[in-house]
Amino acid sequence: MAWHICVLLVSTGLTGTITISMAAKPVRVLLFDWISGGHHEPLMARFAEALSESTEVCVAAPDEALAKMGPLPATVIPLGSPRPTIDDSRHFSREKRRVGQLEVRLMRAAALDCAATHVLHVFADGTVRWLLREPPMPARVSLLLFRPRAHYPALYESPLRFQERVAGLALDRGVWRWMSRSDAQIVLTYDEAAASRWAKRYGARAQWLTEPAVRETSGKDAGDHRTGYILAGSLSARKGIELLAAAAEVRRWAVPVRLMGAVDPGYTASFREAAARIRSSGAEVEVCDSWQSNAEYLAHLGRACCSIIAYPRHIGMSRVLLESAAVGTPIVAHNWGLLGHLVKSFGLGIATDCRDPVAFRSALDRFAEPHDRLQYAQALAAFAATYSEASFRERLRAVWQYV
């Protein structure tokens, strides 16, 4: 950076220009996430990879998360154990306050440790409230939020329960207050409508961020050789596996069903019972809970007739939805929230009330024939193209374009 100063030499009547060169302070970004498991590690690695091309990057994450990420183009700051599991429904609990305040202190310490000029909290939904209670950070702060929901009734025709409405309004108001702080840089979210609403507020910018592109898509060329149905991801109560079991019991179902992903420890007994119910309907059930590489996982997803995303009340985006679109596998989803809205709006498959076994089963049966699957191929490809690697990197780097 160079400053040009015009100097008037009064005694001689001459003027001149003196150029003083000043080195700009380098942008050093700290990526912070205190959670381990699921999609946290691969997303952090992709963020670090994208940003390392133009900035200095530090990554602060739990020890086990850093081990899963492998070598990174960044300085790493181990955070020890992951964020403790707490009951998020108890909004005012002492335990929630203790964990939230500790998370903010860990983020501040990591920013000081690596002399960060900017911090990006990569999963900040549970942190906004506690950031507001602390003094400004020693760096500019950006937040990636996964679960905005206050706009669901008006924009997605998805009613919220009382507790969900309260939580949605609390997040919105917290974000609006945070956007006016001196250390606020930008608020990011995977929900385009939420970003548009926040962008109208005073203060820091708000921006829609597309998820990192799905790279390994060799399974998308399966054509008519696709067989069966797949329900993939972390296998837990929120995935709607019991709803799938109820749909299977509507009538005999001689199809292959693959349940793929790690089973939540607290859900093991219920999962086994649901899988047994699906099997007793005549379906050939395969449980694949062993570790799979990303390429193997996507190959399984790409060979299925249909991807089942029957989350009863999922708030936010789903990586499985994007992965299904990338490999050309049509989707049956519950018709609620952002996921139901995306499936309906972009024609990615069928959004139905998965709590209705007959309606759910009817939607699944539609994809037994190749011609019913192929009619969605163009829409799936167009949707996946929106989430390109170039789009992700451009939007992510735009966070610091005004620095």
Concise synopsis of the structure shown:
This protein is of the alpha/beta class and 403 residues long. The protein has two domains: 199 residues, Glycogen Phosphorylase B (Rossmann fold); 169 residues, 3-Layer(aba) Sandwich (Rossmann fold), CATH 3.40.50.2000.
Write structural notes for this entry.
The chain has 403 residues and is α/β, with parallel strands linked by helices. The chain folds into two domains: 28-213 and 388-400, Rossmann fold (3-Layer(aba) Sandwich); 218-386, Rossmann fold (3-Layer(aba) Sandwich), CATH 3.40.50.2000. It contains 16 helices and 15 strands. It has helices at 40-51, 63-69, 94-113, 128-131, 152-156, 162-179, 192-199, 241-248, 268-280, 294-302, 319-326, 337-346, 357-365, 370-374, 377-386, 389-397, and strands at residues 2-9, 14-21, 28-32, 56-61, 75-78, 118-121, 140-145, 184-189, 205-208, 229-232, 256-260, 284-288, 306-309, 331-334, 349-352. The strands form three sheets. Strands 5-4-3-6-7-8-9 form a seven-stranded parallel β-sheet, sandwiched between helices. Helix 8 (241-248) packs across helix 13 (357-365). The longest helix has 20 residues, at 94-113. It is globular, with a radius of gyration of 24 Å. The two termini are 12 Å apart. Mean pLDDT is 89; it is low at 1-12 and 17-23.
Notable features of this structure?
single chain; 403 residues; alpha/beta; Rossmann fold; 7-stranded parallel sheet; 6-stranded parallel sheet; 16 helices; 38% helix; globular
CATH topology call of the largest domain: Rossmann fold
Helix-residue proportion: 25-40%
- Architecture (CATH level 2) name of the largest domain: 3-Layer(aba) Sandwich
Strand content: 15-25%
- Number of domain units: 2
**Uncertain segments:** 1-12, 17-23
- Mean pLDDT equals 89
Output the structural class. Answer: alpha/beta
**What is the number of helices?**
16
CATH superfamily of the largest domain: Glycogen Phosphorylase B
Distance between the termini: 12 Å
How would a crystallographer describe the biggest sheet? 7 strands, parallel
Which CATH class of the largest domain is shown?
Alpha Beta
Q: Tell how many strands the DSSP assignment holds.
A: 15
The radius of gyration computed from the alpha-carbon positions, rounded to a whole number of angstroms, is 24 Å
The strand line-up of the biggest sheet is 5-4-3-6-7-8-9
Please state the overall shape, judged from the principal axes of the Cα atoms.
Answer: globular
